[in-house]
Amino acid sequence: MVLGNFICATGIKLFLEPAGIAASSTTGLAMTVEHYLNVPMSYVVFVINMLMLVLGLVVLGKKFVITTLASSFLYPAFLEMLDQIIGDYILTENKILCILFAAAFLGVGLGILIRAGASTGGLDIPPIVCKKLFHIPVSVTMNTMDFFILGSQLLYRPVENVLYGLVMVFLLARVLDAMLMLGTTKTEVKIISSKTEEICQAILTRVDRGVTLLDGESGYKRDEMQIVLSVISNRELPRLEKVVHEIDPECFMIVTRISEVKGKGFSRSR
Q1: How much is the pTM?
Q2: How does pLDDT run across 38-84, given as a tens digit for each residue?
Q3: Residue ranges of the domains in the chain?
């Protein structure tokens, strides 16, 4: 959690802040409210954070709120520390580079926080709630909110800055998705062969993975057949392919990357 907050703060201080692009999430919403209603941004951020913490407490539990409160102190503390160390130093004035690296740092930092069961608070909480209640990917909810928040800034910010903000939101979501899926992706293999039994035994003994036999039928001759189905880790694929092709070089193999598997031998539902 400490590492995640530090990475986020580094991305903000070194890349996002110098770029001067339109902000999203809690900061962006607070800036819009301040502009239109003349309410101090700090008040808006405080109200949003408190409301979202209540939502997190109700849906996600006390542990989540405690870790999020910790982030609420760590995140600004790291920003202040970096401000003291770096000052007004600008690493690059190239906005494209700033956007790319800001998206990378923030995506990795947020990914670490979410996988640790925490967040930076504010509007980072609703996407996690939607993920738990409705199984909507975190990046989808986050993208939707950020697009609306960035869009609200079009009336008082240069269009170019808002467009840069939209690009960063898109890139950040891709990095965040990759971080959240890290270590959970698996490979599904379907094998069609005349040597089904030999292949099954080889996968069970030499690859040490389970197999399932599916009933199938060829489309042309209507011949009945059995299809071997197995789910393996990504690094086991070359070994499985070698084992199967040793038995039947003419077999038909379908390989599919799947996002997550729950059950014995893989991750379990919590």
Answers
A1: 0.65
A2: 887 667 877 888 888 889 889 988 888 887 787 777 777 887 788 78
A3: 2-181, 186-258
Q: How far is CA 161 from CA 166, 230, 249, in A?
A: 9, 49, 56
Per CATH, is 186-258 categorized as 3.90.550.10? no
Angle at 226 between CA 221 and CA 227, to 5 degrees: 105
* Helices and strands (H, E) in the chain, number of each type: 11, 4
Q: Count Cα atoms within 13 angstroms, Cβ side, for 37.
A: 11
**Beta sheet of 186-192, edge-to-edge order:** 212-217, 224-232, 186-192, 252-258
* β pairing state of 224-232 and 212-217: antiparallel
CA atoms within 13 A on the CB side of 66: 3
What are the structure tokens assigned to 192, written together? 């069609």
Query: Comparing C-alpha atoms, which of 159, 251, 167 is closest to residue 175?
Result: 167
Backbone angles phi, psi at 223, to 5 degrees: -80, 135
